[in-house]
Fold:
Amino acid sequence: VNGATPTVGTLVDEFSFPVDESKVREFALAIKDPSPRYVDPAAAAAEGFERVPAPLTFAVVAAHHRDAAAAVGLLGLDISRVVVGEVAWQYERPVLVGDRLDGRRVVADVKSRDGGRGGRMTLVTLETELRNQHGELAIRQREVLIETGA
Amino acid sequence: MTELTVGPITRTDIVRFAGASGDFNPLHHDEERARAAGFPGVFAMGQLQAGMLSRLATDWLGLRAIRSYRVRFSAKVWPGDTLFLRGREEARHREEETGEELVHCVLEAVRQDGEVAVKAWVTALA
Structure:
């Protein structure tokens, strides 16, 4: 698996998932957020949302609809040495129950440098635009994968 | 300034997040596999901490006001750990184009031993 260098612009994966009421509720419970805005349309409306909104990091549920091992393999990285260093989300419009999100993950940057213990360290930045069912940009996601030296 | 304490984090919390998020990496739920990989046992996925920390931001700044959220993972969280979540305002500025006033805040999830597990940066409409 190792050796190949990921190329900027490579499409890593594409996915699509529904933002449904049960999943939003389950996710809010899992992150221990008791806010009523995630279960009660009236509480959501009081904060200016048309419908119940998804929590800030809800886009991680895309993991249900992707193959992490295949993605890392496609990048030529060794999954046993890959960790996620950083993730950033930029919010362009609210994500609400009833929406669908479509995403395409693309390689945005690749850097290689000498790691602390002699091995080479590879940093791969992936960018995903998550668009809703109307094709409108909802979230830009940027994640940095780190492959530590062998 | 805002703060909140969560935990102790249990294996059940980790498994619940695995189901909610779809992260079924066995290092987070299978003790044998975690030990075989050289860890003392299972540990929480960074996104669990990132999610718990995001609540601090939304309680404080309002979900609707938040423009960006960035997290950096720096230490693992183990079953039994308690996390102290805290946030502070760092700066404010006015966007030239839109005239919007934005507030920049820094959040941290700190373990009971003082290690920062996750650091986060949030930008929100003031």
